[in-house]
Amino acid sequence: MPALHALVYVSTADHPLSAPEIDHLLERARARNEVEGVTGVLLYSRGNFMQFIEGSAAGMATVYAAITADPLHHGIIELLNEPRASREFSDWAMAFRSVDALGVEYTNVNEALLSDKLKQPTTAFSPARVLLSGFWHRAQGL
User: Fold this and answer.
1) Which of 87, 10, 105 is closest to 48 using CA atoms?
2) Closest CA relative to residue 51, chosen from 70, 1, 35
3) Residue 4 in contact with residue 87, Cβ under 8 Å?
4) Residue 142 DSSP code
5) What domain range is 86 assigned to?
6) Shortest CA distance to 107 belongs to which of 53, 61, 65, 44?
7) What is the pLDDT of residues 83-128, one digit of tens each?
8) Number of domains in the chain
9) Can you tell me whether residue 93 is helix, strand or coil?
10) Facing residues of 53 across strands?
11) The domain spanning residue 52 has which CATH number?
């Protein structure tokens, strides 16, 4: 089994994304991630993204190249890039959660599972989960 790697980055949307644009983005990401064996979660709030992806080095390189070339966002900042012992989001080619500027959440089929992953850390969370949780709770104004 190839060694796992994880990456967390933040970026800024080129413009406020509509629901159809988000759906198209997720459709492309999920298809690409499935082919490359990459899993993860994408958070979107008030024009900002935070994404966590995990997979083999080769799969991650392909997916991250597509991410950095995507004109829908700019100002990509890597917050974490490290080897992993196991996956955090093994069941999802790309889970997604969003809150718009008015606080309206974009629904997700796996909402309960994702909510558990984004809860405020009370025990030892991985650095990636701490970053994701912090981003999400700030987006909600908590």
Assistant:
1) 10
2) 70
3) yes
4) -
5) 4-139
6) 44
7) 988 888 777 666 676 765 444 445 454 455 555 555 555 555 678 8
8) 1
9) coil
10) 7, 40
11) 3.30.70.100
